[in-house]
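Researcher: Here's the sequence for the chain we discussed earlier.
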Amino acid sequence: MTGEVRVLVYHAAEDPAAIEEAYHQASNRLQGVPGLRGNELLRSVHDQNGFVVASSWESLEAFQAWEQGATHRDSTAPLRPFRDTRLPVPFAIYQVAAAY
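Model: Thanks. This is the structure I predict for it:
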């Protein structure tokens, strides 16, 4: 295992422009967070309202330190109204098991 982590947060939005704007706001707030390698906004090809913010972290410890820190909620606040409430758990955390 590499130690790297991917965090997926599921969102739903009828207005793609609104979630894209929220994504850019949150991403600007996240610049310089230790251990964050980057993130992407993905749109489902099967559900026109389905979106995922996928972030890449150098380790689970780096992600947990940020998640438990004081800036976590403020940084992601623009995206919070779009959280996909259709799902019982609107996020997932995966550790990279293998990569090429």
